[in-house]
Amino acid sequence: MVMPVKNEARNLPIVFRSLHGWIDEVVLADGRSVDDAVAVAKECCPDIKIVHQTGSGKGGGKMPTSAKTRHRKMALRLAEAFVTDPVGVVRALPGHISMQVWHDDVANDSEPSWYEHMHELLGAPWPCPEAGQVNAVLSETAARLAARGLAVGRQTYGGYSDGDVSLGRAVWCAVRHMRPTMVVETGVARGVTSRIVLEALDRNDHGRLWSVDLPHPFDHSIHEETGAAVTEALLPRWNYVEGSSRRRLPQMIRDVRQVDVFIHDSLHTARNTRFEMDHVAAVMPQGGVMLVDDISTHDGFVTFTRDHAEFRAIVCPSADGQGQFGVAVKTSRNHPCVL
Ligand SMILES: C[S@@+](CC[C@H](N)C(=O)[O-])C[C@H]1O[C@@H](n2cnc3c(N)ncnc32)[C@H](O)[C@@H]1O
Fold it and tell me: Residues enclosing ligand 1, CB less than 6 A?
C-alpha cells in the first residue's frame, strides 16, 4: 500500500493500528514532511519503506515505483483518498479489500476426509493411533488458558485466533509420525500450536522448535499472554525469536539449516505466506511437511503448490468450518498439482 503524507505524525498511529494484520507492505511517500511523520511511521511499522519526495505537498513529487505492482490501481485509488481522509480510508478498508471473504483462486472444496488423506501423504498408519493423545493435549491446553482467564478460539488475541483444533491434530500427527529434528513455526500468540509441537517432540524424545513471532505492535496489554499455553517443562526444546518473519526467518533458516516440519500461522497474506513457504522449501528435505493456516483468503498456498511440483498438497477444513489450512508434503518426485 502506498501512503502519501504531509506532516501526519499525530494521525499515523491511528492509521497503522487499523491497518495491522491487513496490509503487509507499506510505502510511505513523505511529502517533505517537517514533523516526525517518518520517525513515527518507522516506529509503528518497522518494515516500512520510505520514499523521500522532491515535489511539494501531500503526495507531491514522484510516486514510488512500488506502486507499479499488480495491485497498482487499488494502491493509487487508496493513495488519492488518503490525501483527504486517511482514517476514513482505513475504516473502509476491510470491506474494500475483502480480506475476510473466500479468495476466488482457492479451492472451495476442502477434503472432508483430509485427516485420512494426510496420513496417506505422510505414509503413516490409518486409523491413526495418535488420535486420543492429541485430544488430551488439546484439552489440557484449553484448560491451562482458561485457568488464566483466557478464552480460546477465534479472534481472542488482538484480532488473531488461536490454532484451530483440526490444525492442532494435523500438527500433532506431522510431528509424531515424521519425528522431525527441526520444526519451525511463524506466529506464536498464546502458543497453542507451539504447545502441541513441543508436547509431540517431548513424546518423541527428539527435536527442537524454533518460533518467530511479532507480538501485537499496538495492543501491548496482551504481550504477557505470549506463549501462555506452553508449560515450563517444555521450554528446553524451544527457541522463541521475536520479530517479523520477513526480518527474522531468513537468518533463522540459515541457523537451523534444515526444516523438517514448518507451520505458518503469522500474517496471512499471499505475499507473506509465499515469502515464508519459498524460504523454507529451499531447506526442506524429502518427506518434509508444511502446515499453512488460513489459506482461504488469498492465493499464496495455491500458487506455491502450482510452482513447486515436488510438493503434494491437500486443503483441509478448519474444525469450525470457517476457514481452511493447507498441508504440503515434499516428495521425491514431481507430481501434478492436486489442487
Ligand atoms: C494467528 S496468531 C498465531 C496463533 C498460534 N499459532 C496459536 O496456535 O496459538 C498470529 C501471531 O502471529 C503474529 N504475527 C503477525 N504478523 C507477523 C509477522 N509478520 N511475523 C511474525 N509474526 C507475526 C501475531 O502477533 C500473532 O502473535
Answer: 160-163, 186-193, 212-216, 244-245, 265-267, 272
